[in-house]
Amino acid sequence: MKEIERKYLVRDMSFREMATERRHIEQGYLSRKPEATVRVRIADDKAYITVKGRNEGAVRDEWEYQIPVDDARLMLERCSEGAAIAKTRYVVPYAGFTWEVDVFEGALQGLIVAEIELPDADAVFATPPFVGDEVTGDPRYFNSNLTTFSTC
User: Fold this and answer.
1) Are 139 and 149 in contact (CB under 8 A)?
2) For residue 67, which of 96, 101, 27 has the smallest C-alpha distance?
3) Rounded to the nearest 5°, which phi and psi values hold at 106?
4) What are φ and ψ of residue 57, in 5° steps?
5) What is the pLDDT of residues 120-142, one digit of tens each?
6) Catalytic site residues?
7) What is the pTM of this model?
8) C-alpha to C-alpha distance for 45 and 13, rounded to whole angstroms
9) C-alpha angle 81-82-88 in degrees, rounded to nearest 5
10) Angle at alpha carbon of residue 36, lines to 136 and 145, rounded to 5°
11) Is 53 helix (H, G, I), strand (E, B) or coil?
């Protein structure tokens, strides 16, 4: 499966009024290698393990599977590289697409990014008013790299 995603910094909090849902997320990485990133995520009362391949611009391979929450907690405690990331994710429908806005907590407080998943790399889409500069290819904003700065 391919993931096609673009990422942007957020310039204001107007996304909150536009959001149709929100969830709390805690995640960590079992592998942060660019060719094989392995993430464990707990989102509210569900947990997932996700394997992602190397980024090629906005495109990369991705496989995701639901796992028991207790297993995910143990993996995060015992096996993760770097600190876990905690964030609140807001889901914002806009102009036929779904945007996910992550408001980070802990050492990353103040960082807010918006992502959009696309059907193909050339998809045309409108950006909502809260969207700022694009940071899609900037490794400073890869969640796997943010674990070196974060504490939950």
Assistant:
1) no
2) 27
3) 65, -135
4) 70, -120
5) 989 999 999 999 999 998 989 98
6) 29
7) 0.90
8) 26
9) 110
10) 50
11) coil
pLDDT tens digits, one per residue of 72-116: 999 999 999 888 899 999 999 999 999 999 999 999 999 999 999
Which is higher by pLDDT, 56 or 10? 10
Tell which residue, 95, 67, 92, has the closest CA to residue 79: 67
Please report which confidence band the pLDDT of residue 34 belongs to, taking 50, 70 and 90 as the band edges: confident
Contacts 24+ apart (CB under 8 A), 40-44: 40/67, 40/72, 40/75, 40/76, 40/79, 40/80, 41/72, 42/69, 42/72, 42/73, 42/76, 43/89
What was the pLDDT predicted at 58?
82
* Buried b or exposed e, range 19-33, using 16+ CB within 10 angstroms: beeeeebbbbbbbbe
> Could you count the other beta carbons within 10 Å of the beta carbon of residue 112?
22
